[in-house]
Design brief:
By secondary structure, this protein is α/β, with parallel strands linked by helices. It is built from 10 helices and 20 strands. The chain has an 8-stranded parallel beta barrel, surrounded by 5 helices.
């Protein structure tokens, strides 16, 4: 899969052999001998965990050595529409222990997967889920990734909860988000389909209301959501009715009562701690994107300082790999062999008209190089070139140690279609593009796309990213990577 690791400490002049914790393969042990079988893929947790029996047991384990569980937010939406069967499938295949899905109810009483109360954002239809029949909803088609007004329509249908349960039954758990109002119907379906052990109910409802539901069946699995307004509910559950097996702690500041060390330690005595890192404010400043820059700014303190034993993420692949590296004591992140990375914000220091051209002299993002003219934003922890407009350009340098053919990719984000168009020009006259920037269905939803291939000799090369003056432009650029694909 394309690498998604990034760093903000790359030098302006060049991408060197070792940068900011990213270890170049040239500095590591030599490659395995030809014919050596590849290593088995790493799986997160205290040890590789697969199958519902092992994952169910893992969820119930809240001991000090309990492995960290990976929760895929709305499934693997980078590979398929959110809350689709394909997104659930891919999340499981890529190592998620729990797939977070959202449940709504149709006009004729069927439970379907849908985050919003309407179908507008994620399908080619309109209207409230509660006003549409199952047949009407099944006639719709899901939009790609996270949906949105300009997202492309796919062939995927809106699944029923029963269809999703059939996918996870022997393989993983699901978190039934948004479904608390339908908990009785959900419970009946879980019992009917033999999937009660697969599903985690979740709410921030009053303790008495939750206890009344938990008293229905000792096998019900439940996570209690705690924010500033109901922090007192921690420790308020009685043994008679049953207690949550996990607490989902939502905090926008480290002064919030629910995240204080003594409170977290008390939770860990008989439950798991669930923390979300998808965007700012769910876990103060800890986010997936900050974790991709440096785990010490995200996942690491979430686990080590704040006691998380469950992490919900939008960057499942990276979290799985980081947990595997943490388990085995390896450094992370590590750039793949023969990959060079250039951060978009690390453009030339040679000044206006030489190092860059921008439509105005103001850095409207202000996230880095505040007093220069290129707009640089903080998008959920990713430091990116933003407010990109036609006719602008930025110049970069890259230090190539091994000559050869390099595939160039760009990590971008945009909710728009079209999103933009760019060309990459190299010092020897080689030009890649123009390339249409893909829509990723969100300003903070970054994906990697190909730009082209270029032949580079050993030494320092200059290249310029030019933004087409005649195309609509509204995207963010995180970084470019050059991966050696062959010799000259």
């Amino acid at each position: 899969m394309p690498s998604t690791w990034r760093t903000t400490a790359v030098t302006t002049a060049a991408v060197a052999l070792t940068v900011a914790g990213f270890v170049r393969a040239d500095d590591q042990a030599p490659p395995p001998a030809p014919g050596t079988p590849p290593a088995a893929p790493a799986v997160a947790g205290a040890a590789p965990v697969e199958g519902i029996d092992a994952i169910h047991e893992m969820y119930l384990d809240h001991g000090p050595d309990a492995g960290v569980m990976v929760i895929a937010h709305r499934g693997y939406w980078r590979g398929a529409p959110e809350n689709s069967i394909a997104a659930v499938e891919q999340a499981i295949e890529r190592g998620a222990h729990v797939v977070e899905i959202d449940v709504q109810r149709t006009a004729d009483g069927h439970l379907v997967l849908m985050h919003d109360t309407t179908v507008d954002r994620t399908t080619n239809g309109t209207g409230a889920v509660s006003s549409l029949t199952l047949a009407q909803i099944k006639a719709l088609r899901l939009k790609e990734h996270l949906g949105g007004a300009q997202a492309a329509v796919t062939d995927h249908q809106v699944p029923t909860l029963e269809e999703a349960l059939a996918v996870v039954k022997d393989r993983a758990m699901v978190n039934l988000d948004k479904g608390w109002p339908f908990r009785g119907q959900e419970y009946d379906l879980l019992v009917e389909t033999g999937t009660l052990r697969n599903a985690i109910f979740k709410s921030s409802a009053p303790v008495a209301e939750v206890e009344a539901f938990l008293a229905r069946d000792a096998e019900i699995l439940y996570t209690h959501v705690v924010g500033d307004g109901n922090a007192a509910s921690i420790g308020a559950f009685s043994d008679d009715a049953g207690r949550p097996q996990a607490y989902e702690l939502v905090f926008d500041r480290l002064t919030d009562p629910q995240i204080q060390p003594a409170t977290v330690a008390g939770i860990r005595e008989d439950a798991r701690v669930w923390i979300n890192t998808m965007w700012y404010g769910l876990a103060a400043g800890y986010t997936d994107e900050r974790s991709l820059v440096d785990p010490a700014e995200g996942w690491e303190p979430v686990v080590e300082r704040h006691g998380a034993s469950m992490i919900q993420t939008d960057d499942q692949d990276a979290l799985v790999e980081w947990l595997a590296a943490r388990r085995t004591g390896q450094d992370w992140p590590v750039l793949p062999r023969d990959v060079l990375r250039v951060q978009a914000e690390d453009y030339s220091i040679d000044g206006v008209g030489v190092g860059y051209a921008d439509q105005d002299v103001e850095n409207r993002g202000g996230a880095a190089r505040e007093y220069e003219g290129v707009d640089v934003c903080d998008n959920g922890g990713a430091i990116v070139v933003c407010w990109i407009r036609g006719g602008e350009w930025t110049r970069y340098s890259v230090d190539v140690r091994v000559p050869g053919r390099y595939a160039v990719t760009a990590r971008v984000s945009s909710p728009y279609r079209p999103a933009g168009r760019l060309t990459v020009e190299f010092d020897d006259g080689a030009s890649l593009g123009p390339v249409d920037v893909r829509t990723t269905t969100g300003h903070n939803s970054f994906m990697t796309q190909p730009v082209g291939e270029v032949l580079l000799g050993r030494g320092t090369h200059e290249f310029t990213v030019r933004i087409d003056a005649n195309a609509y432009q509204n995207f963010n650029l995180d970084h470019l990577e050059l991966e050696r694909t062959g010799s000259r």
